[in-house]
Amino acid sequence: MELPSTSPPDAVPPAKPRVLIVDDEVEVGRALRRLLRSGYALEVVVSGAEALEKLATFPADVILSDFRMPRMNGVELLTAVRKQLPNSRRVIISGGADIALVRSAITEGVVCGFLNKPWDTRVLVELVRELAAMSAPPPPGEVLGE
Fold first, then answer.
1. 8's torsion region: left (phi>0), alpha (psi -120 to 50) or beta?
2. Which of the following CATH numbers is that of domain 18-97+107-135: 3.40.50.10420, 3.40.50.720, 3.90.930.50, 3.40.50.2300?
3. For a surface tag, which of 32, 42, 50, 128 has the fewest beta carbons within 10 Å of its beta carbon?
4. Higher pLDDT, residue 140 or 55
5. Residue 124 DSSP SS3
6. What φ, ψ does residue 112 adopt, rounded to 5°?
7. Phi, psi (degrees; rounded to nearest 5) at 75
8. pLDDT of 38-55, one tens digit each?
9. What is the mean pLDDT of the chain?
10. What is d(CA 56, CA 16) in angstroms, rounded to the nearest whole number?
11. Number of H helices, E strands in the chain
12. With a threshold of 0.85, does the pTM exceed it?
């Protein structure tokens, strides 16, 4: 015997969490897209300026940004993103970040996660899952990831 559905017939399924990946290395963006392709609405861009443009039409829940990029580093980008989307969760992924600057950004609540390149796939996927499930970013100074 089939049980009746508890949701209304015209119920809309919940939207997938939106994740924006920002990395000037195209192959890194592709790799991250492959890792996160199921379960998320994804966009990949190659610069801070392009990210800020994209966020006008794609209000991401989670932003993963490289630190070292031309013209605008990841902390500069995520500082601007925080003003535009204060409830977004913002993560730096980098193999060569200015650690003092990243620590300061974490303390100020600009960044809530940091992962080293090369990343541990399990840690990255779990971090994005946790951040996407949050209704608000963690308090300033609390860092997630490695």
1. beta
2. 3.40.50.2300
3. 50
4. 55
5. helix
6. -115, 0
7. -70, -40
8. 889 999 999 999 999 999
9. 86
10. 18
11. 5, 6
12. no
- Over residues 6-34, the mean pLDDT reads 82
CA nearest to 98, candidates 81, 114, 82: 114
Residue 73 has pLDDT above 60, yes or no: yes
String of b and e for 17-30 (b: at least 16 CB within 10 Å)?
bbbbbbbbeeebbe
Q: How confident is the model at residue 8 (pLDDT cuts 50, 70, 90)?
A: low
If one counts every other C-beta atom within 10 angstroms of the C-beta of residue 116, the result is: 15
DSSP string computed for 14-79: PPPPEEEEE-SSHHHHHHHHHHH-SSSEEEEESSHHHHHHHHTTS--SEEEEES--SSS-HHHHHH
